[in-house]
Amino acid sequence: MEAESTNFLLEVVVPTIGSVVAIAMFLSNMPGVLKVRARDDLGDLNVLPYPAILANCVGWVCYSFVKPNGFILAPNAPGVLIGLFYMLTCLPAAPRRTADWVTGLSLLYTTAFLVAGSLTCYRDLTEESKQMLWGYTCNAILITYYAAPLSTLLQVWRTRNASSLSLPLASANAANGALWLVYGLAIGDKFVSVPNGIGLSLAIVLLFSIFTFWPGRGRAKAEGSAARWEKAVI
């Protein structure tokens, strides 16, 4: 009975919560996108993660088809619609350079799906080989999605100011990574556990940076250290 309860917790409750957290993570960008839609101006909104959101969800939907898993399909099906809405809303308001980057990333991800889809349909692959093909494809895209916020991490450490990072999004990434890591380990699926373990690690780095360099805190610590040094020298 205890073993059945543990299995139910790990294989049903955890991925159910994980699905809710994943959808909330995808929706965290919605307020900013709705502002863009209302004023037809991109402002300071960074739209480069949106192609990764869309591609990540499309990839996992495909993975859930070759390795039938409703828990993987559940958050990623609405994620496809959310990512597509973000792209179609923000792209017309983006400057040419940003639009070119989004277009290039979209073409890159689409090419990867065309190659994986063609191999799946036109090569005599075993079911295990199909799962591995889509698993590796999804893993590569998921890592780029998790790593997207790290593009500003160097600037955060240089300026000692984490105002460019989002605490709610970093927290959601950490929770999402932890839940799907546990689920992947529970069902023995390395394509679920490994990338989410990496995602959890990246999210922890982001959270550490946010709490270390919260606006004013990092500067105050630096100034305090400098003052103590000057006092010691004098």
General description of the model:
The chain is mainly α and 234 residues long. It contains ten helices and no strands. The longest helix is centred in the middle third of the chain and has 27 residues. The radius of gyration is 21 Å and the shape is globular. The termini are far apart. The C terminus is likely disordered. Keywords: Membrane, Repeat, Sugar transport, Transmembrane, Transmembrane helix, Transport. It is a multi-pass membrane protein.
Largest sheet: none
Q: What is the tally of beta strands?
A: 0
Kindly, what is the distance between the CA atoms of the first and last residues, rounded to a whole number of angstroms? Answer: 70 Å
Helix amount: over 70%
The share of residues in extended strands comes to under 5%
**Envelope shape:** globular
Summed over residues and divided by their number, the pLDDT gives a mean of 86
SSE string, helices as H and strands as E = HHHHHHHHHH
The assigned structural class equals mainly alpha
Poorly predicted regions: 218-234
Q: How many separate helices?
A: 10
Output the radius of gyration.
21 Å
